């Protein structure tokens, strides 16, 4: 499910006096959003919008070149609020490793938004794909979504 920057999923910690999430009562500049899939086509737009609204944003990618492309895409005035990490959330061990590196780099994460998924995959009609292609889609795209949710939700 894609979320707009305005509907970032907030942490589930509740404020005792108002019933609102603790993150919702913080200013944007105090919040750190983990943008899963943030180096992708859709995700980079989400990251840019969050940064432009004053959020601090962290993005994880398997490929440093995608993170470099993201850094050149965002507004120069917001780059200091972008943290990028190379890591693989496609396995539980990889997700845990990058989660620890993320916590060390940014401290507390207050929000998580995900644009992971495989609805964008344009390999053609399923009946024209090889079993090898299907395995790649499942292992690379579906498993990473599952493992990411398991590692980072709820935070």
UniProtKB/TrEMBL annotation:
Regions annotated as coiled coil: none
Stored PANTHER family: SHORT-CHAIN DEHYDROGENASE/REDUCTASE, SI:DKEY-238O13.4
Cross-referenced InterPro entries: NAD(P)-bd_dom_sf, SDR_fam
Segments of this protein annotated with the region Disordered: 1-24
GO CC list: mitochondrion
The protein's name in its UniProt record: NAD(P)-binding domain-containing protein
UniProt entry keywords in alphabetical sequence: Oxidoreductase
Pfam families, per the entry: adh_short (PF00106)
GO biological process: fatty acid beta-oxidation
A GO molecular function held by the record: 2,4-dienoyl-CoA reductase (NADPH) activity
């Amino acid at each position: 499910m894609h979320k707009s920057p305005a509907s970032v999923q907030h942490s589930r910690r509740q404020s005792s006096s108002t019933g609102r999430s603790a993150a919702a009562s913080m200013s944007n500049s105090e919040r750190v959003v983990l943008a899963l899939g943030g180096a992708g086509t859709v995700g980079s737009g989400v990251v840019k919008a969050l940064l432009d609204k004053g959020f601090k944003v962290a993005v994880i990618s398997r490929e440093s070149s995608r993170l470099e492309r993201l850094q050149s895409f965002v507004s120069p005035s917001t780059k200091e609020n972008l943290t990028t990490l190379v890591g693989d959330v496609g396995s539980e061990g990889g997700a845990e490793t990058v989660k620890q590196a993320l916590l060390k780099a940014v401290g507390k994460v207050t929000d998580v938004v995900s644009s992971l998924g495989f609805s964008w995959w344009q390999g053609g009609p399923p009946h024209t794909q090889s079993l090898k292609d299907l395995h790649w889609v499942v292992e690379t795209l579906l498993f990473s979504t599952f493992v990411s949710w398991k590692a980072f939700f709820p935070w």
